[in-house]
Amino acid sequence: MTYVAPNSIQARDIASVVHPQTNLARHLEVGPQVIERGQGIYIWDDAGTQFLDAAAGLWCASLGYASERLAKVAYEQMRKLGYYHLYRGTTNEPGVELAEKLLSIAPVKMSKVLFQCSGSEANDTAIKLVWYYHSAIGKPHKRKIIGRNMGYHGSTSASISASGKPDMHADFGLPFSDFRHTEYPHYYRRHEDGESEEAFATRMADALEQLILTEGPDTVGGFIAEPVMGAGGGLIPPRTYWDKMQAVLRKYDILFIADEVICGFGRTGNMWGSITYDLKPDMISSAKALSAAMQPISALMVNEKIFSAMVDESKKLGNFAHGFTYAGHPVATAVALEVLRIYDEMDMVPHVQRVGAYMQQVLRRFADHPIIGDVRGVGLMCGMEMMKDNATRTPFDPVRKVGAVAEKHARANGLILRFIGDRMAFSPPLIITEAEVDDMAARLQKVLDATWSELRTN
Ligand SMILES: Cc1ncc(COP(=O)(O)O)c(C=O)c1O
Questions:
Q1: What is the pLDDT of residues 166-196, one digit of tens each?
Q2: pTM score of the predicted model
Q3: What is the spatial distance between Cα 365 and Cα 32, in angstroms, rounded to a whole number?
Q4: Which atom of ligand 1 is nearest to the CA of 298?
Q5: Using a 6 Å CB cutoff, which residues line ligand 1?
Q6: How far does CA 143 lie from the centroid of its chain?
Q7: 224, 262, 324: which to mutate for ligand 1, most atoms within 8 A of CB?
Q8: Which backbone phi and psi does 115 adopt, to 5 degrees?
Q9: 3-state SS, residue 150
């Protein structure tokens, strides 16, 4: 039991707050870490300890942790129009301008934008639109949604149903019955000896096709996937994977939702993961770096095929009966617009390409470390797998909880990473510089050495 001073923020937190993705019983004993301030890619806790945040919070704080410029935009917008909704045909300028901007930078031709406040809501909306679309075109039985094992699309009931996260379904009675999950492309862990990336990708596409045939193609309406899997471990798709997967979707007339919540706005070295992997989605969900995480906002883009079906339905029903109170919130859209201007001014995409290439080169050097098996990344995103023996691809015994050991050493060395089992995911703020990549690598070296040393002694 950690000592928690009475009336401290820690004690008040324990008494009042339920934390997402936290062991609640343990939290009652150890309490929270209080984050007090941030600057650039660094944050400080209330003890004054500095951390380099190589996770950008939750893959989202693309411009770091404090911004005078964005604060001024929010302030001015609040003084002018601090709230209005988009219901019943009302609108406001920042919302329209942001929609126009998003359509102008979309990776494939998109028709319209629906705003929400989170990635979960954007994906939930996309799933509802798969159902709505198929009702509109007279195929209401085409309802099943296929996601991928280890895919993550949010915590609302439908978006988590589409996610392949059994730990997040457990005891919630989820996933809902219309959801299925196919194989996920973790080439390093799951390829057979001698199997090339291309052959592995064929196997993944065959598994998708087999699932569709088993379910009945007339019952499958949509497929949702992240261009690069984030919460699944920063998993880079193997060569030819996306070409083969998309060919299957086309063959069975299945709508494709690209979940760009992490990949959107530069993360993979292009404005969209869909550009990096030549995806042709029918809908694109985005959030996180859209506002540099400074405001809760998400945007779902839909193509003309979907939109015209929505128009037909609302003609029939008299209304498009869907919406959120804060969708298109003017303060959030004004901030997002300014964020997109900042991306333009800083030449964000070329910056990510340059610093991303450097980060990949620096992180790949750790492939020789005794506890590292695989290092694979794209842009400013990288997954690194800890393994007992790389040559034989033997993982550590799960009871050793190597990820938790490494996370403890990361905290002790002022480095924040995302740990997913024995995998570490890197997704630093997009503003990171080469010198800061070096700082990250120096801290990482200490983390891996300390983890290795602890594993050897125990
Ligand atoms: C790919 C992906 N989609 C959707 C979500 C859900 O977004 P939110 O937490 O904003 O609801 C996340 C969150 O991490 C995500 O990584």
A1: 999 999 999 999 999 999 999 999 999 999 9
A2: 0.98
A3: 34
A4: 10
A5: 58, 118-120, 123, 152-154, 226, 230-231, 259, 261-262, 287
A6: 24
A7: 262
A8: -100, 145
A9: coil
